[in-house]
Amino acid sequence: MEINKKLHSVALASAALILFLILVSSIASAATEQSVSQVGPYAYITNGCSDTVSVIDTATNTVTATVDVGSQPYGTAVNKAGTKVYVTNNYGDSVSVIDTATNTVTATVLVGSSPLGVAVNPEGTKVYVANEAFDGTVSVIDTATNKVTATVNVEEDPFGVAVNPEGTKVYVTNCGGDSVSVIDIATDTVTAEIDVGYWPHGIAVTPDGKKVYVANFGSDDRTVSVIDTATNTVTATVPVGDDPSGVAVNPEGTKVYVVNHESNTVSVIDTATNNIAATVSVGDWPIGVAVTPDGKKVYVANGYGNDVSVIDAATNTVTSTVPVGDCPVAFGQFIVTPSVQPVIPIAAFSASPTSGKAPLTVAFTDKSTGTPTKWKWTFGDGNTSTQQNPKHKYSKAGNYTVALTATNAAGSNTTTKAGYIQVVEKPVAAFSAKPTSGKAPLNVAFTDKSTGVPTSWKWTFGDGNTSTEKNPKHQYLQEGNYKVTLTVTNAAGSSTATKTNYIKVTTNTRPGIYSENK
User: Fold this and answer.
1) Hey, how many other C-beta atoms are within 10 angstroms of the C-beta on 179?
2) Angle at 311 between CA 88 and CA 223, to 5 degrees
3) For residue 318, pLDDT beyond 80
C-alpha cells in the first residue's frame, strides 16, 4: 500500500496536474479578517504547466495580470494586508514572493524539497511551507527577511497547510502518513498527530477555529474528515465525490466547498449537519477552490480545462468560466491590491450637446476620479438615473441644472452645474432703443428684448453700420430717418424684427426738415 501511494504521487506530479490547492486555510480564516471597505477582490491562481500565476479580478471575472514565477507552481497564500503573495515552486524547491502593487516577483526563498502547501499567519509575519518529497518537513519563513528561520519535522509527504484564525496553530496534512500534524506556532514543534482518511490533501480551518476540514484524496475513502480542534479528534466523516482535493470554508463558517477531482464536481457541505447540501458540476479535473470574502462566489480551478469555474453560492450554479494558464491548480486568498484601495471619489462630468432645441437628447459622461461604484444623476427636470454614462431627453425648453453624486466604499461626493443644459425654442426678435430721436451726433443704446433665448444677434442700423452685440450702442452722425433691423438666432432657428423710420436724427441748420434714409 505504501509503495503504491508513493508511485501514484510521483506520477501525478510528473503530469503537473495534481498541483493541490492549499490556500483553503488562508481563505477560510483570513478572508473574514478583510476590511469591509475593500473592493475589487483578486484571485491568484497558480498555473502548474505555465510557470505563471494568473490574477483574476473577481468583480469582472477577467485576468488582469500574469506573473512569471518558478518551476511548476502549486500553492498560493496571501498576507492579511493584501500586499504579498507567496507561491510554492514544486520543481524549484522555492517560494516566489509577489508584490501585489506591481504584480512582480520581489524575492525567491529556498525551502525544502518539492514544496506544495503554503499558508501565512494572521499577522503576516510568518509563512509555513509543506515540503512534500523526501523531507517530511515544514519550512518557516520570516517575512521581514524572507529567510527560513525554522524547519519542523512532520510525518511522510506533507501536502496541505492551514493556520488557525488566532495564529497559534498550524495544521499540516501528511499524504504518506494518513494524518494531520498540529504545530505550535510559539515553539515550532508538533504537539499532536491526528489520524484521518487515506492520502489527505486539502485542509481548511473554520473562521471560529473550532473545526478543521480535511479532504482525503485516496480512492478508497472519498471522504472529508472533520476535526474538533479542542480535542484533536475526528468527530465526523462526510462522504463526497471521487478524489476530493481542495477545500474552502465560506466566511460565515456555514458551508464547506470540496472539489472532487475525478468526479468533476464540487460538494457543498452544511457545517451544522455535516451533510451534503448540493453537488455542483464544474470543469475538467477540478483541483483548487476558494470563496470570496463576501461569500457570494466560489472559484474552482479546473486542471485539465485550463480555466476557472465561478459558482454563485446562493444558487449553487456555475455563472461564468474564466480562461487562465495551463493546468490551473491553487488559489490564494482574495485580496485588494494597495493600488485600488478605495478613496472618496471626486465627482465630475461632461455632456454633449449642452444646448439645442426641444426635444433635446443629451449624452452625459462620468469623469469622476477615485473609482466610484455607484452614480446618482439629477437632470433638473425631475428625472434621475443611476447609470454611469446615461442619456437623457429634455422635452421642454428651459435652463436645467445637473448634479452627479459619485459613491464608493469610502464615501460619496457631489458636483452641480447650474443652468448647464439649455433647451431652447425658436426665438422671436424684439428690441427697443433710447433715445429714438435727437440732434446729430446722436448716441443710441439698443436693447434686445427677444424671447426664446437667442444665442446670436445681428443688428443693422440703417446707416450702413452693423453690430453682433446683444445690446449695442451706436452713434448716428447724419440727419435722417433710419430703419433698424434685428435678427436673432439660436439652435431652434432665427427671427427678424424691423422698425422703419425708428431713429430720427436732426441738425441745427435744418430744423424740422427730415430726409428719409431707407
Assistant:
1) 22
2) 65
3) yes
268-271, Cβ contacts within 8 angstroms, sequence gap of 24 or more: 268/316, 269/213, 269/224, 269/238, 269/240, 271/206, 271/211
- For residues 254 and 475, give the distance between their C-alpha atoms in angstroms, rounded to a whole number: 89
Strands (E), 156-254: 158-163, 169-174, 179-184, 189-195, 200-205, 211-216, 223-228, 233-239, 244-249
What lies within 8 Å, CB to CB, of 15 at 6+ separation is none
d(CA 17, CA 285): 9
Q: Is the peptide bond before 158 cis (omega within 30 degrees of 0)?
A: no
Contact (Cβ atoms closer than 8 angstroms) between residue 131 and residue 139: yes
Contact call for residues 117 and 133 (beta carbons, < 8 A)? no
**The three three-digit cell numbers of residue 344, written as one number:** 472618496
What mean pLDDT is reported for the chain?
Answer: 87
pTM: 0.62
Burial class (CB in 10 A: 0-12, 13-18, 19+), 193: middle
Here the cell at position 463 is: 446707416
The single-letter DSSP state of residue 333 is P
Q: pLDDT digits over 252-309, tens only?
A: 999 999 999 899 999 999 999 999 999 999 999 999 998 888 889 999 999 999 999 9
Residues 330 and 347: their CA atoms lie apart, in Å, by: 39
Site of grid cell 439660436: 490
Taking the C-alpha atoms of residue 27 and residue 15, their distance in angstroms, rounded to an integer, is: 27
Kindly indicate the confidence band of residue 410, based on its pLDDT and cuts at 50, 70 and 90: confident
Q: Measured between alpha carbons, how far is 446 from 461 in angstroms, rounded to an integer?
A: 10
Residue-range domains of the chain with CATH: 2-338 (2.130.10.10), 349-424 (2.60.40.10), 431-517 (2.60.40.10)
Reply yes or no on whether the pLDDT at 343 is more than 80: no
Model confidence over 344-392: pLDDT tens digits? Answer: 899 999 999 998 888 999 999 999 988 788 999 999 999 999 999 999 9
Give 338 or 55, the one with higher predicted confidence: 55
